[in-house]
Amino acid sequence: MRPHALSLSLGLALAALHSVPAFAQDANPASVAEAAVVSATAQTDAALATAPTETLAPADAATTTVDTTQAATAEPALDYALAQVETSQVQPAQPDPNAPAAEAVPPPATAAVEPSAADDQRTEAERDFDALYGTPAQEYDPVADPTLPAPASVPGAFDPWEKYNRKMHRFNMAVDRGVARPLARAYSKVVPRPVRLGVSNFFNNLGQPVSILNALLQGKPKQAAQALGRFALNTTLGIGGIFDPASDAKLPNRSEDFGQTLGVWGWKRSRYVELPFFGPRTVRDSFGALGDAPLSPLRHVERDRIRIPLQGLQLVDVRAQLLPLDSLRDGAEDEYALVRDSWTQRRDYQIFGDRLDKNGDSALPEYLQDDSNPSVPADAMPVMPTDGGR
Hints:
390 residues; mainly alpha; two-stranded antiparallel ribbon; 2 strands
């Protein structure tokens, strides 16, 4: 074989090596490069094996030098191909630049690591409390609870004379703190409770005739009969009303007055007014007191030295019943508004509450079933316009 045949074989091997990157796009780079190297090596070995051993002529010396130079150049190229094969076995194939870009996948969110028991600085009792009632971030908000029913709408007091009423309220409170409250506290401290209860029963029994007549005027014959039974039973067996056997006989104590009768008859809304010494009223209830005064047994006592002390004792007894409310009034931001609104709501229940309960519109609360109304009664007033100058 002539020397230029060896050069041709080496050229073919180099061409095969340079063609490896072109096939890398469609085939595995490792397999293509490896196949090219094997093919080039085989051709070179075959060319060397078939070449005869002969002495080169001087004329061919230049050609031999060129072929030797090409062989020396082929060896680094062969090493480079082998290195590419080894690298392709370790590194992944390069992506096709003409291929569409793959959609980026976000990395998975790192799960929140809950604090371990060693990091929890709460005590065992606090952990138990949070397990039962929730953490502070999970506290129950009754205002934002959508399952709660709508709040009850309570009509406000009709108070166009508020400026005058507030002045009169301050006057009444000064009299109360200076005179009425100290007398009531001394009375509660000195007089035993059974005696005070007997005094309250006595004055309550004296008000039954007024309740009997007003129950009839309001169209409540059953309630009028019960009030008549209470008056008869407590006056006789109760020794003038000091004891209360009528309550043991299951006869209810429902107080009615002419102010309530006017409300049942249609005078539903009336101006709020505060009277000197006698406290909260409405214009309707002021006229009602004038109608009740002639029916009171206590006002028919002719002798002033008996009637006036009894009326004074009745006023002290009424004030003593209101002593538990003093802490509530003293802690109020607006004492006048508290007294006015609470008295108005209580009065509305007394006039309209039983009818709402009867019609099923509103259940009367249990604390309102006791119809005792600790306010200054008409029979405790020393002088009334109906007295005729007496």
